[in-house]
Amino acid sequence: MTIEDEVRSMQKFRMFHHVEASKLKLLAMVSDRITFQPGEVIYEQGAASDAVYIVLEGQFTVSLRTAAAGVINFAQHVRGAILGEAGVLCDQDRMVTITAETPVVALRIDRDIFLQLLKESPPFNFAVMRELGRQIMDLNNICAQLVQQLPEGAAAADAGRNISEPQHAH
Amino acid sequence: MSVNFFRYVWMYSRREQLIVLFYVAASLPFYWWSLDVPKRIVNEGIQGSVFENGVSQARLFAYNLSLPDYLGGGSYVISDGLLLAQLPYLFALSLVFLVLTLINGWFKYVINIRKGVLGERMLRRLRFDLFGLVMRFRPEDIRTTKPAEVTSMIKDEVEPIGGFFGEAFITPAFLGTQALTAMAFILVQNMWLGTLAIALILVQGLVIPHLRREQIRLGRERQIESRILAGRIGEMIEAAPALHNFGVTGHSSAEIGHRLGTLFDIRLRLYRRKFAVKYLNNLLAQLTPFVFYTLGGYLALKGQLDIGQLVAVIAAYRDLPTPIKELIDWDQQRADVTVKYEQVVSQFSKDTLLPKETIEPPPAVAADAPITVVGLRVVNGRGLVQLDRMSVAMDRPGRIALAGPAGGGRDVLAKVIGRQVTDYQGSVAIDGREIAGMSDREASALLLYVSSEPFIMSGSIRDNLTLALRRATPRPDERAELSAKQRYWLEEARKTDNPLVSPDADWIDYAAIGASSPAEVDAAVSNALRIVRGYDEIFRVGMSSRLGDDTPPDTAERLLAARPAMIERFKERGLLQYVEAFEPDTFNTSASIGENLLYGVAVGNRFSPENMAADPFMRSIIAAEALTAPLTAIGIKMVETVADVFQDLAPDNPLRERYSFIDNAEIEAVWPEVRSAWNRGQRRHLSAQVRDKLIGYALMYVEPRHRLNLIDDRLVARILRARASFRQFLPASDAKDVEFYDEGRLMPAASIRDNLIFGRVRYGKAHMRDKLLAAIAEVLNEHGLESFVVSKGLDQEVGPGGRLISVQQRVTVQLARAMLRRPDILILDDALSSFTPSEGHMILENIMDAMEGRTVIVTQSGEDDLSSFDTVLKFEGAKFTGLERRESARIPSDAVASEPATASA
């Protein structure tokens, strides 16, 4: 697979619909293509956010280790997703663990390169923003459904409360 | 240091000056004779005045010593002399003249040499004295000193002073007596001519210095102006990144341009003056002979003066202006140099200097003596109160936090205790000893201040770390046999009061870290690095540093043994597939085309990646295997891609990093030609230069990294053939330029990591590099090579001001340096601010553990977690607002707990 192929597969993604091919080519040129075997961890909860991944092929699971309830596997995704951008943008450690479900092919973009790319290319910047916006809308939707399922009088959710496992000093 | 130049010179060079003066005195009789002999040559030898009246032989070299009448008037014959005919008489006199000339020349030579040596010695002393003074500046004064100005003063401005040291007493003595001798000689020959000469000289001596006064003033102005220029240039170079950042280089250039203009103007006026004075000087000098010829000739014709006398007078006079002129020069130089000297010395005299360093060990300070602060108040130069009056006692040992907002009193107190601010009111003392009054030796034995601005000197990381230990002051070994050169070296140092111990001697204070050999110092260094969490970093640096030629044989053996062990370990861990080993008959896809061609490591520049394509031998191999066209095509494709994708990006945009070997400027030069050739479909018409470039790019191509799908099996086969023929046909004389990969041999030119992996880590795997490195570290450890790798890492050069290493590495070095010393009191003034909070916290915890039983003083903001401290001093702005003692402390000391806090104002 060459850069040209990568550009072609990215063009099919919804988030990159409005990004011109030359910018996608730039994106491909400054990233590394990485493959993960099924079961292989793409990144680990609590690790430093050193890169953003764009999944070209394959399925993966998102899971969260919590202090109380053990590991929660809460979502499965397929190709076309951008991974780890929130952590990079907010300068936070990884919030969740991502594991490959099937063989995954992804483009790995170093943190600094990703930030530089956002500065350099408004269409790309816009694509990432739109993707984040869409995620927020999806989450709102999910939240509303979850609240509906809650029994009467349950404690309200709080963004400040962290249910993930406490960090170990490393 | 004496402010009077002559006193300074006399104080330190009396003996030598007197010796030279003795030489001067000894030279005078010969000088007189050398003036006298020409007269006798003309009168007696040529005109034959002693051969008149039929005398055919005259006596030469007959010397009688006649006593004056009041001593009895006796006469003693010293030598009867020789009886000679006129011609031998002439020759003998001429020979005497020759000998006298030689003797005079010899005197001049000796005097000049002695003078020069004397001047150089004094210059060395002066420079060393000035440097010593700067080193004793108070920290406040140091901060307002511009390094470039001081450098220019110590280096350049004192240079002319140095030349004058030797002249200070000797020149007036030498030239003055010479001129007097010549004057006396002229006077003895003829009263009139002598008086005339004196009159002319007086005019010279009076008018010219007057004219030169302005010249001196201009000279001083020039000195000050160029010193400021040096200072500003130095400042601007340091600030260059900021200037670029704000795009204000134009303004600073304008300023420098203006300063250069001022300097030019001063110099121009100086030149005009100088040559006007010179012109006048020459005129007066030329006028005198005119007078001598006319008047002297008239007197000679009248018979009142003989021709010999006239010739001698003119000869004497010809010699006269030189000493006179030089005397005037000397006087001007004197004025100039004394002004310069006073100027420079005044720059170095501060009202208060730090106390002089002593060699005696400082008095011991009780380990548990508290730091007592009484009525401390700090006001800065503009009268702003930086720390309001406060009194407190800090128990030792203890973990003390100075908490408050940054920029307030907490920083000032830290700086006072750390001796960065010595200009304060009140008292800060430990065991009754005032902190500001301690000598370096005393203070550094007790406390250590670490700020957020790491101070790194050029040298290796090891040099920078052991800097903290270089305080043993080795004593010169008296019994050691010294070579003549060493003795001379030592003697000269002694003569100028320079330090007698060589900087290359072993200055490491082994006792301080409980070590006895350099190897143990490395262990202590590693330990210190572990405390500040910098060990892994140094290990990594060591791994990627060049193996070098000087690997000890047993280490080399272990390295070779580690290679198969490494592969075994990779296999165990399932990591083997992520490494692509170098194999002679296989194309290594993770390496560049060039690396595959060379199949080895370039030693020196000839086959380095950027030069390889231009090398004739390499090119002949490429051509022989019909690789020129395909490589050019690859190069074109790369240039095309880069030109296409990166066209809008600035040349230094980090996104270009992966293709950074293709320079933007080069693309602009190469691309149009490539495109037009492409359009015409005639690739052969590329110029040789462009073709070189394109092939050069192609040799850097790595398929999985650049992913342009440019390598196929046919190309691989050709490259492998080229690899074989390159090795086969490489002339034996060039073999030293390449180290071919060989499983059984180490490659000194490659990094330790490459030497161990013996291959390339494959692309396309995210975390494997880390895992591989971890496995390598393990194997290295098992083979006892860890200390070797760390030692290599410590050899890494840091560059001037530490520019070659990252900011965090600099801070790490600075902290590790402090941990190497383990002072009784460690002051961390915002020292961890360049780390992330969690990292900083972990480092602080480690440091506090390592400093168990000693005192750590840390500046903290109010929000920081203060639970690990046992004393917290709170500040608000410049005010000290209270002391809080925490019961979690290991040593509860309630007795004194409340008392100092109440004492605070």
From TrEMBL, chain A:
Q: Which organism is it from?
A: Ancylobacter oerskovii
Output the InterPro entries linked to this UniProt entry: cAMP-dep_PK_reg_su-like, cNMP-bd_dom, cNMP-bd_dom_sf, RmlC-like_jellyroll
Tell me the ranges covered by the Cyclic nucleotide-binding domain, including all copies: 15-135
User: What Pfam families does this protein's entry cite?
Assistant: cNMP_binding (PF00027)
- PROSITE patterns, alphabetically? CNMP_BINDING_3
Specify the taxonomic lineage.
Bacteria, Pseudomonadati, Pseudomonadota, Alphaproteobacteria, Hyphomicrobiales
Instruction: Give the protein's recorded name.
Output: Cyclic nucleotide-binding domain-containing protein
Q: Which Gene3D superfamilies match?
A: Jelly Rolls (2.60.120.10)
Q: Which SMART domains match?
A: cNMP
Matching entries from SUPFAM superfamilies are given as: cAMP-binding domain-like
From which residue to which does any coiled coil extend?
Answer: none
TrEMBL record, chain B:
Instruction: Name all ABC transmembrane type-1 domain ranges.
Output: 75-329
Q: Which InterPro entries does the entry mention?
A: ABC1_TM_dom (IPR011527), ABC1_TM_sf (IPR036640), ABC_transporter-like_ATP-bd (IPR003439), P-loop_NTPase (IPR027417), Type_1_exporter (IPR039421)
**Segments forming domain ABC transporter:** 371-902
Decide whether keyword Disulfide bond is in the record: no
Give the transmembrane ranges: 18-35, 89-111, 164-186, 192-211, 279-301
Region span, Disordered: 886-905
Query: Entry's Pfam families?
Result: ABC_membrane
Identify the main location: membrane
Native organism: Ancylobacter oerskovii
PROSITE patterns attached here? ABC_TM1F, ABC_TRANSPORTER_2
Q: What is the protein name stated in its UniProt record?
A: ABC transporter transmembrane domain-containing protein
Give the highest taxon in the source lineage.
Answer: Bacteria
Q: Where in the cell is it found?
A: Cell membrane
Transmembrane helix listed as a keyword: yes
Coiled-coil residues are: none
Q: How does it sit in the membrane?
A: Multi-pass membrane protein
Q: Which UniProt keywords apply?
A: Membrane, Transmembrane, Transmembrane helix
Q: Where is the signal peptide?
A: none
